[in-house]
Amino acid sequence: MGRILIAVLALAGLPWSAMAADNTSGYEIRYGVEFGFLKTSGYPSWTTGFVGKLRYDNDGAVFNRAFVDYRGRFGDTINVHMVLEGYDDDLGNTIDFTEAYVEWRPMPKSATRYRVKVGAFYPRISLENVDPGWSNRYTQNSSAINTWVAEELRTIGAELTVSRRPESLGGAHAFSASVAAFVANDPAGSLLAWKGWSVHDRQSRFSDKLPLPPLPQIQPGMMFDDQNPYVEPFVEIDGRVGYYVNGEWRFGKKFLLRAMHYDNRADPRAEENGQYAWTTKFEHLGMQTTLPGDIGLIAQWMIGSTVMGPVMNGAHVVDTEYDAQFVLLTRAFKGHRVSARYDHFEITQNDSTEDDNNPEKGHAWTLNYQYSFSDRIGIAAEWLSIKTHRCSWEYYDIPTTATERQVQLTLKLRF
Amino acid sequence: MFKIYRNKRLLLLLVTQLWVGPVLAGMLHVRVVGPDAQPVPDVVVFVQQNGSANIDAGKPAAAIMDQRDKRFAPHILVVQKGAAVSFPNSDVIAHHVYSFSKLNRFILPLYKGTPPDAVVFQHDGIVTLGCNIHDGMLAYIVVVDTDVFAKTNDDGRVELAVDDSASSYEVSIWSPRIRDAEGHLVQTVSGDAPGEMTFALEKKLRPAHIDRLESVAWDEY
Q: I want to staple A47 with a disulfide (CB 3.0 to 4.6 A). Which of A90, A316, B72, B200 is the partner?
């Protein structure tokens, strides 16, 4: 906690020194702290190096996160956005950045807008994590899709977005298209294939080392014994550039649709410093709408593949396909919010490599109620149940089908 | 409770217009309905008074385009040509307001509080506002070359005090929701009988601008 506090204070001091006399500069900082109590059941958490889908495996008090979301503005068109996350969980007591980028927002000269981001940022996928600090507005623990995005994906490169303002297309339709090129992020897919989908609220920071389950194939003398027992998701291994393209259409405040094609173009045979490169590709579809009764509906669907190793018997040594969807319903009442989400997720495999049986199938239910006393203080209660069948659990002599549950009471502070 | 409030507002409107209107004032009643015969609120209605003896209307009234909770308020503002509009920022965060509309182009450098200078709109037409920081912010300033203008109420109605000496009135309506051809949006009546006039729109309206708390987020932080 001490280190987290020091870093928070250090970042709070940063804008003062960065502020020029130029009065067109400025900054916004949002601080957040989330902690509470929980009761949980299931396997020891993946954060301890085992297979549990949830972040916590002990009942009692937990410190979920502290974050600082800094947005600096320099002159009329340059923005800097940095997010620092502090955790105190089984992966340690550290603080680090989750995002850090510069954005150029030239002044629009017509109904067409251009935005350029350079740095490290989340790809445009989540429709849940829309608040400062990439906080989930609706639930404490994010959907399987967005939990994976938080675990293993970060665009370290540049993104260009071109958008048409709504009034240019008749007052209601807004379109935008983004294209991004990125380096690093080559191990993305390791956790998805070897650990599987999860549902939690932990975002990986730039230097995080995320533990893998004790898989037979990464043990000494086995096929992937070069693999460290952990994944460093954001390292560069093969020197190749990945890309994504994303299109978005919004119709007033009634309907939003986004579609992405993502390919990290990693060389599946590259390995460096105990990390393998995984060729990770997916298609993503997200939609959001408001149903009668002002009930918000959000749904996302991701389908893709991640492969690693040389080709043997017509498939890469680890050759997996994945597919996940969720539907979330949410309703805000003055200060109150009620949300419910159903997640479905699946991994299949094309390889027949022994002792590396990665298929899984499962679903999760998440129910959340939150109340904001003010802009600064809120409470949330969340019930979460996730049922999974995962073949590789047989290696640990535990049932390959399990239901893990968690009830959590969280105090959310914002400054 | 709601009804009482609405009646009060109507009364206030009447009182204001009677008081402001010139001595020889008549009332022009305008109603705007959609193709489903439902009233259309928040439509700008403005009147050119042809042959009016009272052309000199004095200095156009100043107006305010506020920014609150990352939204412009009001969503649609009508002003007379030459009016000075100030852009106070009631949020704690900065805004960066601009318009790229052809004849009324301007940029207010990033600011908090009220910028020292108001923007004077010298050309009539639609001014589309945006904020370069919050891409979701959108508002319109409708600059009209007359001092007779107002917006329809929740019942799609508006009453305008007009000058009885005019030979005819050219009544125009505008809303970002309207899709009808421009020819449908202007009606002329003789000065003898201003009375009541209805604009019955033929095309389905675009969705209304929503300015209330919503269950899902539509604008990026």
A: A90
